[in-house]
Design brief:
5-stranded mixed beta sheet, 10 helices, Nucleotidyltransferase, domain 5, alpha/beta, 40% helix
Length: 339
């Protein structure tokens, strides 16, 4: 099966062509193209939805054309078009959805609508024949700027949401705390780099909900604790490099300890055979290392380039769930969640 996948849920404009043969446990990337407006948003310290949508309007056709050309697949050989239906920014989603519907009508190809959240999870099923196949049941930790969720996967067609963030997601906490420290957006990668030279014991920041009986998360309290500490220290322009490094190290340690504890707790309760990691924060090497260190369960994570938003992951989910629909029945849904 060969699929053209399109992803426009936030500030990336992405298209990919993927293929999957019957019976295979992984998806192969034939092309994967991403155009990002990140540089524009870094100037404002966050994503401005209208700006993101306008940039996607400019990039969507060139990105799709490049993905098809690079894949060396003819349009007539495509079996379907996969499109991110939600969740995301409504303006951005509409750019992708309406483009996919138009192409579906013109090319007479069915559409496979994809939940962006599941796409992040299925980045673990891309080009992994060199690895052991994912075994079920599995626990997936989805951790990004907008989401922090734990999902039990009994098989490819049986998902159960176990818990998620009650306020700030982990990536959102990194970004907001980074703003307190005058770090560039997105702050996560910068904080990870600075943390390598910091003292994890310099500040005793809280680990919100680390001992709760459920699988929910909350990082707003951590953000507030860092804000209080920065107020004591005075203006951020006067912070020494070592102080910023220490704050980054302690914040990262607090977030990762909560993520790892909750994930392993869920893995033990449901006696899973695999742990999957997905989302932008999944690129954090410290998080990967801590999970690998503390469990003997098979642990899977995507290549770092596939952790952030991309179309290949959308195509991967579609390849395992080829639930085709006609273009008339597809609509953008910014509030789509796990279902």
């Amino acid at each position: 099966m060969k699929i053209l996948a399109i992803e426009t849920s936030c500030d990336e404009t992405a298209a990919a062509v993927v293929s999957k043969n019957p019976g295979e446990s992984y998806v192969k990337i034939l092309s994967n193209v991403v155009a990002s407006s990140l540089m524009l948003h870094s100037k404002t310290g966050g994503i401005i939805p209208d700006v993101a949508a306008r940039e996607q309007l400019k990039f969507i056709i060139p990105v799709i054309e490049k993905a098809i050309k690079t894949s060396k697949i003819k349009i007539e050989d495509l079996d379907a078009i996969a499109i991110t239906q939600g969740p995301g920014l409504i303006g951005s989603l509409l750019i992708g959805v309406e483009t996919a519907k138009t192409l579906s009508f013109l090319w007479k190809k069915p559409i496979i609508p994809v939940n962006h959240l599941f796409g992040h999870i299925y980045a673990n099923f891309i080009q992994a024949p060199k690895l052991d196949a994912v075994q079920f049941p599995a626990i997936a930790l989805l951790v990004s700027g907008g989401h922090t969720d734990l999902v039990l996967i009994k098989n490819h067609n049986n998902f159960k949401w176990l818990g998620g963030t009650r306020d700030d997601a982990a990536g959102e906490a990194f970004d907001k705390i980074g703003r307190l420290l005058n770090l560039p957006y997105p702050a996560g990668p910068t904080m990870e780099a600075l943390a390598k030279n910091g003292d994890e014991k310099a500040f005793n920041f809280p680990r919100p909900m680390i001992g709760s009986r459920d699988f929910d998360f909350s990082f707003s309290g951590l953000k507030a604790a860092v804000w209080r500490e920065t107020k004591k220290l005075g203006s951020s322009v006067n912070y020494s490099p070592s102080t910023i490094n220490d704050i980054c190290a302690c914040v990262q340690k607090s977030i990762i300890e909560v993520l790892v504890r909750k994930t392993l707790k869920a893995a033990k309760k449901y006696n899973v055979k695999s742990i999957l990691l997905g989302g932008g924060v999944a690129a954090n090497q410290k998080l990967r290392d801590e999970i690998k260190l503390k469990t003997k369960i098979k642990f899977f994570f995507p290549e770092k380039g596939l952790c952030t938003d991309n179309a290949a992951m959308i195509g991967a989910y579609a390849a395992f769930h080829p639930e085709e629909k006609s273009w008339e029945k597809i609509n953008a849904n910014p509030e789509l969640y796990f279902d």
